[in-house]
Amino acid sequence: MSREAWVLVVLAAVAALATLVGAVLLAVRVVRTRRMLGALGVGGKVAFYGALIYTILPVDLLPDPIYLDDMGVLAGALIYLGRLAAKHRAAQRGLPDRSDSPPGPGRARRPVS
To answer: How far apart are CA 27 and CA 50, in angstroms?
Structure first.
């Protein structure tokens, strides 16, 4: 093999390793949200277990050395679970929705046209 071919093989291996590490880190963050699943309802449970099952199963949109699709599913589940958790915390504290709250000091409300 020529030197250029070795460089491409090494770059591909580094890219595959980097995406694997990213997927593992996202999976760990999603698993850490598991303690809130009881409070997040059915949608949270489906997002959590669906993302983990998609990541573990060998059937993917992209071949397994490329973990970008797994990372996308895990990131989407993490964003969704984070929003559900924020809504749940706001409901527990009895805070009003941000869209209906009056403007804070120094912020004027713009007229709707």
So the answer is: 12
Say which DSSP state 5 is in.
H
CA-to-CA separations, 78 to 3, 51, 54, 92, in angstroms, rounded = 41, 9, 14, 21
Residue 55: pLDDT band with limits 50, 70, 90: confident
Count of Cβ atoms closer than 10 Å to residue 82 Cβ: 13
Q: Whole-prediction pTM value?
A: 0.61
For residues 42 and 46, what is the distance between their CA atoms, to the nearest angstrom?
Answer: 6
Of 67, 62, 31, nearest to 47 (Cα)? 31
Q: Are 21 and 39 in contact (CB under 8 A)?
A: no
pLDDT digits (tens, 9 = 90+) for 33-42: 777 777 778 8
Indicate the SS3 state at residue 57: coil
C-alpha–C-alpha distance, residues 20 and 70, integer Å:
9
Q: How far apart are CA 73 and CA 26, in angstroms?
A: 10
Q: What is the dihedral of CA 87, 89, 93, 98, to 10 degrees?
A: -30
